Amino acid sequence: MEKNETNNSLPTIPTTTTTPTIQKLNDKLKDKEYLSKLSKDELINLIIEENEKKQQQSKNIFKNNGIENSEGKKKKKSRNKQSNINFDKCYKRHVAFKLSYVGWPFFGFAAQDCSEETIENYLIKAFLKTSLISDIKTANYFKSGRTDKGVSAYGQVISLYVRSNLKEGEGIIAPKDQSGGPILNRTKSNKNSNELTKNNDNERARKGNKKSIEDDEELPYVKMLNGVLPPEIRILAWAPVPFHFNARFSTLSRTYKYFFHPHGLDLNLMKEASKLYLGEHNYINFCKIDVNVKSFMRVILQFDVEQVENSELYVATIKGFAFLWHQIRCMMAVLFLIGQKKANKSLITQLLDTNKTITKPPYEMASEVPLVLFDCGYDDIDFIYETSAQEKTVESMFSVYNDYLIKAEVNRLIRSTLKNTEPTATSKTLQPITNITNQITSPTTTETETNEINSINIGEKRKHSITESVKELEEEENDHKHKHNKN
Protein backbone atom coordinates (compact mmCIF):
# COMPACT_ATOMS: atom_id res chain seq x y z
CA MET A 1 0.00 0.00 0.00
CA GLU A 2 1.40 3.41 -0.98
CA LYS A 3 2.14 5.81 1.87
CA ASN A 4 0.82 9.36 1.47
CA GLU A 5 3.08 12.22 2.66
CA THR A 6 1.73 15.67 3.51
CA ASN A 7 3.66 18.95 3.73
CA ASN A 8 2.56 20.78 6.89
CA SER A 9 4.19 24.04 5.76
CA LEU A 10 1.69 24.48 2.94
CA PRO A 11 -2.03 25.08 3.35
CA THR A 12 -4.32 22.23 2.36
CA ILE A 13 -6.40 23.04 -0.73
CA PRO A 14 -9.70 21.21 -0.60
CA THR A 15 -11.25 19.58 -3.64
CA THR A 16 -14.03 21.64 -5.11
CA THR A 17 -16.76 20.85 -7.55
CA THR A 18 -16.37 22.27 -11.04
CA THR A 19 -18.83 24.99 -11.90
CA PRO A 20 -21.28 24.42 -14.77
CA THR A 21 -19.69 27.17 -16.87
CA ILE A 22 -16.20 25.68 -16.65
CA GLN A 23 -17.61 22.20 -17.30
CA LYS A 24 -19.19 23.40 -20.55
CA LEU A 25 -15.88 24.97 -21.62
CA ASN A 26 -14.04 21.73 -20.90
CA ASP A 27 -16.58 19.75 -22.98
CA LYS A 28 -16.17 22.16 -25.87
CA LEU A 29 -12.37 21.91 -25.75
CA LYS A 30 -12.58 18.10 -25.84
CA ASP A 31 -14.95 18.12 -28.83
CA LYS A 32 -12.62 18.01 -31.87
CA GLU A 33 -15.44 18.31 -34.34
CA TYR A 34 -16.67 21.49 -32.66
CA LEU A 35 -13.17 22.99 -32.49
CA SER A 36 -12.44 22.25 -36.15
CA LYS A 37 -15.37 24.41 -37.21
CA LEU A 38 -14.16 27.46 -35.24
CA SER A 39 -12.10 30.25 -36.75
CA LYS A 40 -8.71 31.29 -35.39
CA ASP A 41 -10.14 34.27 -33.44
CA GLU A 42 -12.92 32.13 -31.97
CA LEU A 43 -10.38 29.57 -30.75
CA ILE A 44 -8.29 32.29 -29.09
CA ASN A 45 -11.33 33.78 -27.32
CA LEU A 46 -12.40 30.35 -26.12
CA ILE A 47 -8.96 29.64 -24.59
CA ILE A 48 -8.79 33.08 -22.91
CA GLU A 49 -12.24 32.62 -21.42
CA GLU A 50 -11.26 29.24 -19.99
CA ASN A 51 -8.07 30.64 -18.40
CA GLU A 52 -9.95 33.51 -16.75
CA LYS A 53 -12.47 31.13 -15.23
CA LYS A 54 -9.72 28.89 -13.85
CA GLN A 55 -7.83 31.84 -12.35
CA GLN A 56 -10.95 33.07 -10.62
CA GLN A 57 -11.59 29.62 -9.19
CA SER A 58 -7.99 29.41 -7.92
CA LYS A 59 -8.28 32.82 -6.21
CA ASN A 60 -11.40 31.71 -4.37
CA ILE A 61 -9.65 28.55 -3.18
CA PHE A 62 -6.59 30.44 -1.92
CA LYS A 63 -8.75 33.07 -0.25
CA ASN A 64 -10.66 30.46 1.71
CA ASN A 65 -7.36 28.93 2.91
CA GLY A 66 -5.80 32.16 4.20
CA ILE A 67 -3.67 32.81 1.11
CA GLU A 68 -3.49 36.30 -0.33
CA ASN A 69 -3.20 35.47 -4.04
CA SER A 70 -2.46 32.72 -6.58
CA GLU A 71 1.29 33.02 -5.90
CA GLY A 72 0.77 31.47 -2.48
CA LYS A 73 1.59 34.47 -0.29
CA LYS A 74 0.16 34.16 3.19
CA LYS A 75 -1.78 37.03 4.64
CA LYS A 76 0.09 38.98 7.28
CA LYS A 77 -1.37 38.54 10.70
CA SER A 78 -2.31 41.76 12.39
CA ARG A 79 0.09 42.53 15.23
CA ASN A 80 -2.32 44.89 16.92
CA LYS A 81 -4.68 42.30 18.24
CA GLN A 82 -7.68 43.76 19.93
CA SER A 83 -7.98 42.81 23.56
CA ASN A 84 -10.71 40.37 24.47
CA ILE A 85 -11.02 41.99 27.91
CA ASN A 86 -14.45 43.30 28.75
CA PHE A 87 -13.59 46.41 30.75
CA ASP A 88 -17.19 46.84 31.90
CA LYS A 89 -16.75 43.68 33.99
CA CYS A 90 -13.25 44.53 35.28
CA TYR A 91 -12.31 46.08 38.59
CA LYS A 92 -10.36 49.31 38.25
CA ARG A 93 -8.04 51.20 40.55
CA HIS A 94 -7.02 54.82 40.92
CA VAL A 95 -3.22 54.72 40.69
CA ALA A 96 -0.41 57.29 40.63
CA PHE A 97 2.69 56.42 38.64
CA LYS A 98 6.14 57.93 39.17
CA LEU A 99 8.26 57.95 36.04
CA SER A 100 11.57 59.18 34.66
CA TYR A 101 12.66 59.96 31.13
CA VAL A 102 15.59 61.32 29.16
CA GLY A 103 13.87 64.08 27.22
CA TRP A 104 16.52 64.86 24.61
CA PRO A 105 15.18 62.62 21.79
CA PHE A 106 11.54 63.69 22.32
CA PHE A 107 9.42 66.72 21.42
CA GLY A 108 8.36 67.41 24.98
CA PHE A 109 6.09 65.57 27.41
CA ALA A 110 2.57 66.57 26.29
CA ALA A 111 0.99 64.83 23.30
CA GLN A 112 0.93 66.90 20.11
CA ASP A 113 -0.94 66.71 16.82
CA CYS A 114 2.19 67.52 14.81
CA SER A 115 4.41 64.75 16.24
CA GLU A 116 4.10 61.31 17.78
CA GLU A 117 7.56 61.56 19.39
CA THR A 118 6.33 62.75 22.79
CA ILE A 119 6.61 61.04 26.17
CA GLU A 120 2.86 61.21 26.76
CA ASN A 121 2.11 59.57 23.42
CA TYR A 122 4.35 56.61 24.27
CA LEU A 123 2.77 56.33 27.72
CA ILE A 124 -0.77 56.22 26.36
CA LYS A 125 0.23 53.58 23.80
CA ALA A 126 1.80 51.51 26.59
CA PHE A 127 -1.35 51.62 28.75
CA LEU A 128 -3.47 50.59 25.76
CA LYS A 129 -1.10 47.85 24.61
CA THR A 130 -0.99 46.25 28.07
CA SER A 131 -4.82 46.48 28.27
CA LEU A 132 -4.66 48.50 31.49
CA ILE A 133 -7.10 51.01 29.99
CA SER A 134 -9.63 50.89 27.19
CA ASP A 135 -9.53 54.60 26.35
CA ILE A 136 -7.47 57.46 27.75
CA LYS A 137 -10.46 59.81 27.60
CA THR A 138 -12.37 57.76 30.16
CA ALA A 139 -9.36 56.99 32.39
CA ASN A 140 -9.44 60.24 34.44
CA TYR A 141 -5.87 60.94 33.33
CA PHE A 142 -3.83 63.84 34.82
CA LYS A 143 -0.13 64.80 34.87
CA SER A 144 1.75 66.83 37.46
CA GLY A 145 3.29 69.10 34.87
CA ARG A 146 4.39 69.32 31.27
CA THR A 147 8.05 69.61 30.34
CA ASP A 148 9.24 71.21 27.11
CA LYS A 149 11.21 69.67 24.28
CA GLY A 150 14.57 68.34 25.46
CA VAL A 151 13.76 68.59 29.18
CA SER A 152 14.23 65.41 31.25
CA ALA A 153 12.58 64.18 34.45
CA TYR A 154 13.20 61.89 37.36
CA GLY A 155 10.08 62.51 39.43
CA GLN A 156 7.24 63.15 36.98
CA VAL A 157 3.88 61.86 38.26
CA ILE A 158 0.69 60.90 36.43
CA SER A 159 -2.58 59.49 37.78
CA LEU A 160 -5.41 57.55 36.12
CA TYR A 161 -7.84 54.64 36.47
CA VAL A 162 -6.27 51.31 35.43
CA ARG A 163 -7.45 47.72 35.38
CA SER A 164 -6.94 45.93 38.71
CA ASN A 165 -6.71 42.30 39.80
CA LEU A 166 -8.03 43.08 43.29
CA LYS A 167 -11.59 43.47 44.48
CA GLU A 168 -10.94 45.61 47.53
CA GLY A 169 -8.41 48.17 48.66
CA GLU A 170 -7.69 51.86 48.31
CA GLY A 171 -8.80 53.32 45.00
CA ILE A 172 -10.64 50.17 43.88
CA ILE A 173 -13.65 50.71 41.58
CA ALA A 174 -16.12 47.85 41.26
CA PRO A 175 -17.68 47.00 37.89
CA LYS A 176 -20.91 48.80 37.05
CA ASP A 177 -22.95 45.62 36.91
CA GLN A 178 -22.02 44.76 40.51
CA SER A 179 -22.18 47.95 42.52
CA GLY A 180 -22.14 50.84 40.08
CA GLY A 181 -19.58 52.82 42.07
CA PRO A 182 -16.20 52.87 43.83
CA ILE A 183 -15.28 51.17 47.09
CA LEU A 184 -14.36 53.93 49.52
CA ASN A 185 -12.79 53.77 52.97
CA ARG A 186 -16.08 54.40 54.78
CA THR A 187 -16.00 51.87 57.65
CA LYS A 188 -13.40 50.60 60.03
CA SER A 189 -13.57 47.15 58.53
CA ASN A 190 -12.97 48.54 55.06
CA LYS A 191 -10.18 50.74 56.38
CA ASN A 192 -8.46 47.76 58.02
CA SER A 193 -8.92 45.80 54.82
CA ASN A 194 -7.34 48.59 52.81
CA GLU A 195 -4.38 48.80 55.15
CA LEU A 196 -3.95 45.04 54.87
CA THR A 197 -4.08 45.28 51.06
CA LYS A 198 -1.52 48.07 51.08
CA ASN A 199 0.79 46.02 53.30
CA ASN A 200 0.38 43.05 50.99
CA ASP A 201 1.27 45.28 48.01
CA ASN A 202 4.47 46.38 49.73
CA GLU A 203 5.34 42.84 50.76
CA ARG A 204 4.89 41.54 47.22
CA ALA A 205 7.00 44.40 45.89
CA ARG A 206 9.84 43.43 48.21
CA LYS A 207 9.62 39.76 47.24
CA GLY A 208 9.30 40.49 43.53
CA ASN A 209 6.70 39.41 40.97
CA LYS A 210 5.65 35.78 40.62
CA LYS A 211 5.04 34.16 37.25
CA SER A 212 1.34 33.64 37.95
CA ILE A 213 -0.91 36.33 39.35
CA GLU A 214 -3.27 35.11 42.04
CA ASP A 215 -6.55 36.72 43.05
CA ASP A 216 -5.03 38.52 46.04
CA GLU A 217 -2.11 39.98 44.05
CA GLU A 218 -2.13 43.24 42.15
CA LEU A 219 -1.04 43.39 38.54
CA PRO A 220 2.72 44.01 38.06
CA TYR A 221 2.18 47.50 36.65
CA VAL A 222 5.83 48.55 36.47
CA LYS A 223 6.96 45.36 34.74
CA MET A 224 4.07 45.43 32.28
CA LEU A 225 4.57 49.04 31.21
CA ASN A 226 8.37 49.02 31.04
CA GLY A 227 8.16 45.97 28.81
CA VAL A 228 6.59 48.05 26.01
CA LEU A 229 8.12 51.50 26.63
CA PRO A 230 11.31 52.87 25.01
CA PRO A 231 14.45 52.55 27.20
CA GLU A 232 14.55 56.34 27.67
CA ILE A 233 11.15 56.23 29.43
CA ARG A 234 10.85 54.21 32.65
CA ILE A 235 8.06 53.69 35.16
CA LEU A 236 9.78 53.80 38.55
CA ALA A 237 6.98 53.09 41.01
CA TRP A 238 3.23 53.17 41.59
CA ALA A 239 0.88 53.93 44.47
CA PRO A 240 -2.86 53.46 45.07
CA VAL A 241 -4.42 56.88 45.67
CA PRO A 242 -7.80 58.10 46.95
CA PHE A 243 -10.44 59.26 44.50
CA HIS A 244 -10.00 62.94 45.31
CA PHE A 245 -6.33 62.74 44.27
CA ASN A 246 -5.27 64.63 41.17
CA ALA A 247 -1.69 64.41 39.87
CA ARG A 248 -1.79 68.07 38.83
CA PHE A 249 -3.83 69.89 41.45
CA SER A 250 -2.72 67.77 44.42
CA THR A 251 0.94 68.68 43.84
CA LEU A 252 2.30 70.68 46.78
CA SER A 253 5.69 71.55 45.26
CA ARG A 254 7.89 70.95 42.26
CA THR A 255 11.69 70.73 42.31
CA TYR A 256 13.91 71.27 39.27
CA LYS A 257 17.64 70.79 38.85
CA TYR A 258 19.79 72.60 36.30
CA PHE A 259 23.33 71.31 35.62
CA PHE A 260 26.15 73.47 34.27
CA HIS A 261 29.93 73.74 33.99
CA PRO A 262 31.59 76.47 36.11
CA HIS A 263 34.07 77.52 33.41
CA GLY A 264 34.23 81.32 33.19
CA LEU A 265 31.69 81.84 35.98
CA ASP A 266 31.99 83.57 39.35
CA LEU A 267 30.25 80.95 41.49
CA ASN A 268 30.23 83.01 44.69
CA LEU A 269 28.54 85.87 42.85
CA MET A 270 25.98 83.47 41.40
CA LYS A 271 25.22 81.99 44.84
CA GLU A 272 24.60 85.46 46.26
CA ALA A 273 22.42 86.51 43.32
CA SER A 274 20.35 83.30 43.42
CA LYS A 275 18.99 84.20 46.86
CA LEU A 276 17.31 87.27 45.36
CA TYR A 277 14.83 84.92 43.65
CA LEU A 278 13.47 83.59 46.97
CA GLY A 279 9.97 84.56 48.02
CA GLU A 280 6.89 85.66 46.11
CA HIS A 281 7.51 87.87 43.10
CA ASN A 282 6.08 88.81 39.73
CA TYR A 283 8.09 86.78 37.21
CA ILE A 284 6.68 88.34 34.05
CA ASN A 285 10.23 89.32 33.04
CA PHE A 286 11.47 85.76 33.58
CA CYS A 287 9.21 83.72 31.32
CA LYS A 288 7.74 83.31 27.89
CA ILE A 289 4.36 85.01 27.87
CA ASP A 290 1.36 82.69 27.81
CA VAL A 291 -1.93 84.43 27.01
CA ASN A 292 -3.83 81.87 29.10
CA VAL A 293 -1.95 82.81 32.30
CA LYS A 294 -3.87 85.29 34.46
CA SER A 295 -1.25 85.88 37.15
CA PHE A 296 2.55 85.90 36.92
CA MET A 297 3.04 85.82 40.69
CA ARG A 298 5.08 82.79 41.74
CA VAL A 299 6.79 81.63 44.96
CA ILE A 300 10.35 80.27 45.03
CA LEU A 301 10.98 78.21 48.17
CA GLN A 302 14.57 77.15 47.48
CA PHE A 303 17.40 78.19 45.15
CA ASP A 304 20.78 76.59 45.88
CA VAL A 305 23.93 76.42 43.75
CA GLU A 306 26.34 73.64 44.71
CA GLN A 307 28.86 71.25 43.21
CA VAL A 308 27.73 67.82 42.05
CA GLU A 309 29.31 65.08 44.14
CA ASN A 310 32.36 63.47 42.46
CA SER A 311 31.98 65.72 39.42
CA GLU A 312 33.37 68.96 38.03
CA LEU A 313 29.82 70.08 37.25
CA TYR A 314 27.59 72.29 39.40
CA VAL A 315 23.83 72.13 39.85
CA ALA A 316 21.20 74.72 40.69
CA THR A 317 18.28 73.30 42.70
CA ILE A 318 15.07 75.34 42.40
CA LYS A 319 11.94 74.49 44.38
CA GLY A 320 8.58 76.21 44.17
CA PHE A 321 4.83 75.69 44.18
CA ALA A 322 4.47 76.15 40.42
CA PHE A 323 6.41 77.67 37.54
CA LEU A 324 5.68 79.71 34.43
CA TRP A 325 6.54 78.77 30.87
CA HIS A 326 10.38 78.73 30.49
CA GLN A 327 10.73 80.39 33.92
CA ILE A 328 13.65 78.19 35.09
CA ARG A 329 15.60 78.70 31.87
CA CYS A 330 15.10 82.48 31.97
CA MET A 331 16.17 82.66 35.62
CA MET A 332 19.31 80.66 34.84
CA ALA A 333 20.10 82.83 31.80
CA VAL A 334 20.15 86.00 33.92
CA LEU A 335 22.17 84.18 36.60
CA PHE A 336 24.77 83.20 33.97
CA LEU A 337 25.04 86.84 32.86
CA ILE A 338 25.84 87.78 36.45
CA GLY A 339 28.31 84.90 36.80
CA GLN A 340 30.08 86.09 33.64
CA LYS A 341 30.13 89.64 35.09
CA LYS A 342 28.20 90.95 32.13
CA ALA A 343 25.49 92.22 34.49
CA ASN A 344 25.21 93.31 38.11
CA LYS A 345 23.30 91.12 40.55
CA SER A 346 20.97 94.08 41.17
CA LEU A 347 19.52 93.31 37.74
CA ILE A 348 17.43 90.52 39.31
CA THR A 349 15.91 92.93 41.83
CA GLN A 350 15.16 95.44 39.10
CA LEU A 351 13.48 92.86 36.85
CA LEU A 352 11.37 91.52 39.73
CA ASP A 353 10.15 95.04 40.55
CA THR A 354 7.50 95.52 37.86
CA ASN A 355 6.68 99.03 39.16
CA LYS A 356 9.92 100.28 37.63
CA THR A 357 9.98 100.82 33.88
CA ILE A 358 13.24 98.95 33.33
CA THR A 359 13.89 97.60 29.86
CA LYS A 360 14.27 93.85 29.79
CA PRO A 361 17.86 93.14 28.62
CA PRO A 362 18.24 91.02 25.49
CA TYR A 363 19.59 87.63 26.54
CA GLU A 364 19.57 84.14 25.12
CA MET A 365 17.44 81.72 27.11
CA ALA A 366 19.46 78.97 28.81
CA SER A 367 19.56 75.56 27.12
CA GLU A 368 16.86 72.99 27.86
CA VAL A 369 19.27 70.00 27.86
CA PRO A 370 20.57 70.38 31.47
CA LEU A 371 17.08 70.89 32.95
CA VAL A 372 15.48 68.06 34.97
CA LEU A 373 12.12 67.84 36.74
CA PHE A 374 13.51 66.19 39.85
CA ASP A 375 10.54 65.82 42.19
CA CYS A 376 6.83 66.46 42.60
CA GLY A 377 5.77 66.72 46.24
CA TYR A 378 2.58 65.14 47.61
CA ASP A 379 1.07 64.38 51.00
CA ASP A 380 0.63 60.81 52.30
CA ILE A 381 1.65 58.93 49.14
CA ASP A 382 3.98 55.97 49.59
CA PHE A 383 5.21 54.81 46.20
CA ILE A 384 5.79 51.08 45.78
CA TYR A 385 9.09 50.13 44.15
CA GLU A 386 8.98 46.58 42.81
CA THR A 387 12.34 44.89 43.40
CA SER A 388 12.63 42.81 40.23
CA ALA A 389 11.32 45.63 38.06
CA GLN A 390 13.71 48.12 39.66
CA GLU A 391 16.71 45.92 38.84
CA LYS A 392 15.66 45.76 35.20
CA THR A 393 15.11 49.53 35.17
CA VAL A 394 18.64 50.14 36.45
CA GLU A 395 19.97 47.77 33.81
CA SER A 396 18.10 49.41 30.95
CA MET A 397 19.04 52.90 32.14
CA PHE A 398 22.69 51.84 32.22
CA SER A 399 22.57 51.12 28.49
CA VAL A 400 21.27 54.64 27.89
CA TYR A 401 23.90 56.06 30.27
CA ASN A 402 26.67 54.06 28.57
CA ASP A 403 25.65 55.39 25.16
CA TYR A 404 25.87 59.03 26.26
CA LEU A 405 29.04 58.34 28.28
CA ILE A 406 30.82 57.06 25.18
CA LYS A 407 29.71 60.11 23.20
CA ALA A 408 30.97 62.39 25.98
CA GLU A 409 34.32 60.56 26.03
CA VAL A 410 34.71 60.97 22.26
CA ASN A 411 34.04 64.70 22.66
CA ARG A 412 36.52 64.91 25.55
CA LEU A 413 39.18 63.12 23.48
CA ILE A 414 38.83 65.59 20.60
CA ARG A 415 38.85 68.58 22.97
CA SER A 416 41.90 67.42 24.96
CA THR A 417 43.81 66.50 21.78
CA LEU A 418 43.23 69.94 20.29
CA LYS A 419 44.32 71.63 23.53
CA ASN A 420 47.60 69.67 23.61
CA THR A 421 48.40 70.21 19.92
CA GLU A 422 50.67 73.16 19.12
CA PRO A 423 49.43 75.28 16.21
CA THR A 424 51.54 75.12 13.04
CA ALA A 425 52.74 78.42 11.51
CA THR A 426 51.03 78.77 8.15
CA SER A 427 52.15 82.32 7.22
CA LYS A 428 54.85 82.66 4.51
CA THR A 429 57.36 85.54 3.93
CA LEU A 430 56.22 87.64 1.01
CA GLN A 431 58.76 87.95 -1.82
CA PRO A 432 59.55 91.53 -2.97
CA ILE A 433 57.90 92.55 -6.23
CA THR A 434 60.62 93.64 -8.72
CA ASN A 435 58.59 95.83 -11.02
CA ILE A 436 57.38 99.34 -11.29
CA THR A 437 54.56 98.78 -8.77
CA ASN A 438 57.05 98.50 -5.87
CA GLN A 439 57.26 102.26 -5.49
CA ILE A 440 53.54 102.95 -5.53
CA THR A 441 51.83 99.91 -3.94
CA SER A 442 51.49 99.41 -0.19
CA PRO A 443 51.96 96.07 1.66
CA THR A 444 48.20 95.76 1.90
CA THR A 445 47.58 96.20 -1.82
CA THR A 446 45.52 93.36 -3.20
CA GLU A 447 46.30 91.39 -6.33
CA THR A 448 43.42 92.98 -8.19
CA GLU A 449 44.57 96.46 -7.24
CA THR A 450 48.15 95.65 -8.34
CA ASN A 451 46.94 94.45 -11.75
CA GLU A 452 44.95 97.65 -12.17
CA ILE A 453 48.03 99.76 -11.26
CA ASN A 454 50.19 97.82 -13.75
CA SER A 455 47.63 98.42 -16.48
CA ILE A 456 47.59 102.12 -15.72
CA ASN A 457 51.40 102.33 -15.77
CA ILE A 458 51.64 100.51 -19.10
CA GLY A 459 49.01 102.83 -20.55
CA GLU A 460 50.93 105.87 -19.35
CA LYS A 461 54.13 104.58 -20.95
CA ARG A 462 52.35 103.98 -24.27
CA LYS A 463 50.79 107.47 -24.11
CA HIS A 464 54.20 109.01 -23.45
CA SER A 465 55.75 107.16 -26.40
CA ILE A 466 53.01 108.32 -28.79
CA THR A 467 53.41 111.93 -27.61
CA GLU A 468 57.18 111.84 -28.29
CA SER A 469 56.59 110.43 -31.76
CA VAL A 470 54.11 113.18 -32.59
CA LYS A 471 56.61 115.86 -31.48
CA GLU A 472 59.34 114.37 -33.67
CA LEU A 473 57.02 114.38 -36.71
CA GLU A 474 56.06 118.00 -36.07
CA GLU A 475 59.74 119.04 -35.82
CA GLU A 476 60.60 117.26 -39.09
CA GLU A 477 57.65 118.95 -40.81
CA ASN A 478 58.72 122.39 -39.52
CA ASP A 479 62.31 121.84 -40.74
CA HIS A 480 61.00 120.83 -44.15
CA LYS A 481 58.85 124.00 -44.42
CA HIS A 482 61.79 126.18 -43.31
CA LYS A 483 64.06 124.78 -46.03
CA HIS A 484 61.31 125.21 -48.62
CA ASN A 485 60.87 128.91 -47.76
CA LYS A 486 64.62 129.58 -48.17
CA ASN A 487 64.60 128.16 -51.62
What labels describe this entry?
487 residues, alpha+beta, 11 helices, flat, disordered N terminus, ten-stranded mixed sheet
Characterization of the model:
The protein has 487 residues and is α+β, with helices and mostly antiparallel strands. 37% of the residues lie in helices and 15% in strands. 23% of the residues are buried.
Provide the low-confidence segments as ranges: 1-18, 65-80, 185-193, 433-446
Portion in beta strands: 5-15%
Helicity range: 25-40%
Whole-number radius of gyration? 42 Å
**How far apart are the first and last residues' alpha carbons, in Å?**
153 Å
| Overall mean pLDDT | 78
Overall geometry comes to flat
Helix and strand pattern:
HHHEHEEEHHEEHEEEHHEHH
List the helices and strands and how they pair.
Layout lengths: L19 H11 L1 H5 L3 H25 L27 E10 L17 H11 L12 E2 L8 E12 L8 E2 L14 H20 L13 H6 L6 E8 L12 E8 L6 H8 L4 E4 L14 E11 L6 E7 L6 H13 L6 H7 L18 E7 L9 H34 L26 H40 L1
Parallel strand pairs: 3-10
Antiparallel strand pairs: 1-3, 1-4, 1-5, 2-3, 6-9, 6-10, 7-8, 8-9
Helix pairs in contact: 1-3, 7-8
